Amino acid sequence: MISTLAFSSTAFTTPVTMLPTNSRAVNVQMVATVKDEVKSEFCFGLPGAIAPAGEFDPANLLEGTSKEEVYRWREAELTHGRVGMLASLGFLVQESFHPLFTADGGPAIEQIPKLPPALWFGMSLAIGICETLRIQKGWANPYEAPSKIQTLKPDYYPGDLGFDPLGLKPEDPAEFRIMQEKELSHGRLAMLAAAGFMAQEAVSGKTWSQQDSIFENLVLGPYFYQEATEVARDAMSL
Questions:
Q1: The pLDDT of residue 227
Q2: How many CB atoms lie within 10 A of CB 86?
């Protein structure tokens, strides 16, 4: 269900003012001006080296990795990050607002099997359409050559689905790069948050709000009890 909205508003088209050119045949992208063999910038100039982690690669995965492979990794990271943001939002919203299902209560992972078959069909169809559009936009045709299996198109920039219905993409390349970094930061946090939501509900058997209430009472319970006692004492003294 959440994947149907994976084309988030942050999937803006890439800027067209970064690299000047006189040829209309060149698709200008905001990428590092380096050859595949020479990597002069972290991740070939892709945004994401964000403070305080900076150029974070403790496993040294970038060593000897081609530009095409790094771009493929970024495409996967952005896709999972966008779905993670929607998933996290779904966990926060669904317990009080659920127009598509009855919400009998309990963890989300236990509610999924209770969805009606018609909704399952609709979700599967919508997810398939969205994924088909995304694949056609950025992925090479594997039937053209074996080397094109699971590879991006040469002129495709990771995450650039051309989807910006609200016109939010900044015209200034520097501002657009900042927006890209914000999306990456939010997506990375959302992937951890969604995994945390699922793990917590699977282990505890309680929804996040129920668990949060228990934790709140554990941490703040003594304070609230003291405040209530003082209020009652003041009321009796009047």
A1: 63
A2: 19
Burial category of 22 from C-beta neighbours within 10 Å (exposed 0-12, middle 13-18, buried 19 and up): exposed
pTM: 0.68
Looking at the predicted structure, is the pLDDT value of residue 99 above 60? Answer: yes
Answer with the residue of higher pLDDT: 237 or 30: 237
Q: What's the mean pLDDT when you consider all of the chain?
A: 77
Q: What is the Cα–Cα distance from 106 to 196, expressed in whole angstroms?
A: 16
Residue 205: its pLDDT value, please?
Answer: 81
Instruction: Give me the DSSP letters along the chain.
Output: -GGGG-S-TT-PPPPSSSS--S-TTS---S-----TT---SGGGG-S---TTT-S--TT-TTTT--HHHHHHHHHHHHHHHHHHHHHHHHHHHTTT--TTS---SS-HHHHGGGS-HHHHHHHHHHHHHHHHHHHHHHB--TTT-GGGTT-B-TTPPTT-----TT----SSHHHHHHHHHHHHHHHHHHHHHHHHHHHHHHHHSS-HHHHHHHHHHHHHHHHHHHHHHHHHHHHHH-
The tokens for 77 are 């990271």
Beta-bridge partner residues of 139: 152
pLDDT band at 100 (very low <50, low <70, confident <90, very high): low
